[in-house]
Amino acid sequence: MARRFDAFVLFAEMRTGSNYLEDSLNNFESINCLGEVYNPTFLGHHNTFEMHGYDMDRREQDPLGLLEAIIENAGDALPGFRLFHDHDDRVVERVLPDPRIAKVILTRNPLDSYVSRKIASATGQWRLTDLKHAKTAKVRFDAPEFRELVDTLGGFQEHLRRGLQRTGQVAFHIRYEDINDADVLNGLAAFLGSDERVDATSKKLKKQNPSPLRDKVENYDDMVAALADLDRFGLEKSPELEPDRAAQVPNFVAHPTKGLLFCPIKGGPENSVLDWLGKIDDVGRDALIRKMSQKQLRQWMKDNPGFRSFSVLRHPVARAYCTFNRFILPDDRPMYSDPRKILRQRYKVPIPGKTPGENWTEAEQKAAFVGFIGFLKGNLNGQTSVRVDQAWASQTAILQGISQVMVPQAVVHEHQMKDALPALASEAGVEEVPEIVGEAMPGAFPLKAVYDGKIEQVLIDTYRRDYVGFGFKRWNKS
Question: Among residues of the chain, what percentage have pLDDT more than 90?
Fold first, then answer.
């Protein structure tokens, strides 16, 4: 019968019990765990530096070749190895999407792991096979160090979770508390395709430092106080439900003779920037380079050493109002005809069937705008059937999408661009820098005519990432 998997990887971290779990798995004749094959300081186990013809240098040059050698030389037993967050990222990215590589994820309370690691570092004892040789020590809790550890491990676990979800895979999850449970171990063996069963887990390794944390941490009270500030249940975390965005490289605009690259954010002051770029060397807007492919973009960057790339942010209130007046209120935008109809019919946004005429009042304008921004929060959270359009997606999400291809060298607030963009142009070698003219807000009524604090609060809730990440203050009505 063919194997279900070619190999397995045990994702774990230091002091999570991975040594113990490996020893228990190796009691199955049909399973062979080879240790930390990609540990930066050894190959498999301490003081071992060669495997299947690969030494440390060859492994560094060809880590995936070693993986193939492990699979090819497996024999009758399913091969596997332990992989930590600080091992080789190239191997993580190779095995994570591969359904022929089984995934086992071992976790432990990060505080217990942290204290255990501190003690092991202090005593030099990383494995214990006989209690008479046990060493112990009291260690100091370092709050910043622990926070950094939690953030790092949390990020790696999230990467694993997303990778499995994207490829439709299921991992076998096991906790530190379960590694001494023979039934759980047998379940893991069955997951890996083994028909063998054992009556007990490994007895070779012994638990180190089983005493309570109070007996192991010398500044225990300080630790408790520091941990009180950790948001264990994510109460302060804002759920990120807005969909990821592509880079939209065809929207980038490059100057044909000077090294300036504009990465526009829809709903921002695009026209002002494009007019300004067209004035440089008097090339005109029509001569600006648009609709580039990623290959053409890379070539442009190679051809323009010293280039400057930039995006311009607009205040969320002003951007939402611009988007509303430019894309939603008029009926002459074919791309927005369906969203406009849905907004009117399903979400009862009080916009007329046709573009408003001369009789459209300030009160009607405000009511329609309030209806539109009320729709935005649910839309960005994936609660509507309407697409999250570039015109009202968060500026954070748009820039994250752009950064998949390249990170803009400058992200400028709209009120800064009259000084910041000429400075960028000078750095790119422009000798005669034209003045940049601000962009008038579209619409029959100015923003200050409809603005109030309630409107801004709705938009703060909707675009919280933009407000916090880019330091936006409340919109200045004056």
Answer: 67
175-232 pLDDT, tens digit each: 998 998 999 999 999 999 999 999 888 766 545 555 678 888 888 888 888 887 776 6
**Distance between CA atoms of residues 326 and 270, nearest Å:** 12
On average, the pLDDT of the chain sits at: 89
Say yes or no to pLDDT of 1 above 80: no
CB neighbours of 201 closer than 8 A, spacing ≥ 6?
Answer: 20, 24, 27, 179, 180, 181, 182, 185
The token duo for 368 is 């329609």
Is residue 450 within 8 A of residue 365, CB to CB? The reply is: yes
Concatenated DSSP letters of 140-184: ---HHHHHHHHHHHHHHHHHHHHHHHHTT---EEEEGGGTT-HHH
The answer to whether residues 108 and 176 touch, using CB atoms and an 8 Å cutoff, is yes
Alpha-carbon distance of 275 to 417, in angstroms, equals 13
Return d(Cα 390, Cα 246) in angstroms, integer. Answer: 10
Calculate mean pLDDT across residues 428-439: 92
Question: What CA–CA distance (Å, rounded) separates 160 from 84?
Answer: 11
Q: What is the pLDDT, as a whole number, of residue 128?
A: 44
d(CA 443, CA 75): 73
Neighbouring residues of 183: CB distance < 8 A, sequence distance ≥ 6: none
Asked if 360 and 351 touch (Cβ cutoff 8 Å), the reply is no
| Pair of tokens at residue 157 | 């676990």
> How many beta carbons lie within 10 A of that of residue 371, not counting itself?
18
CB within 8 Å of 197: residues ≥ 6 apart: 186, 189
Give the Cα-Cα-Cα angle 463, 467, 472 (nearest 5 degrees): 135
* Nearest Cα residue to 171 out of 232, 97, 110: 97
Could you give the count of Cα atoms lying within 13 Å of 331 in the half-sphere of its Cβ? 11
pLDDT digits (tens, 9 = 90+) for 302-337: 999 999 999 999 999 999 999 999 999 999 988 899
DSSP per residue over 210-273, as a string? -S-GGGTBTTHHHHHHHHTTS-TT-TTPPP--SPP----GGG-EE-SSS-EEE---TTSSHHHH
At residue 421, the 3 state secondary structure works out as helix
C-beta separation of 9 from 163 below 8 A: no
pTM of the model: 0.61
What is the sign of the dihedral through the CA atoms of 15, 19, 25 and 27? negative
Give the pLDDT of residue 110. 87
- pLDDT per residue as tens digits for the range 123-149: 766 554 444 445 667 888 888 888 888
End-to-end alpha-carbon separation of the chain, Å? 77
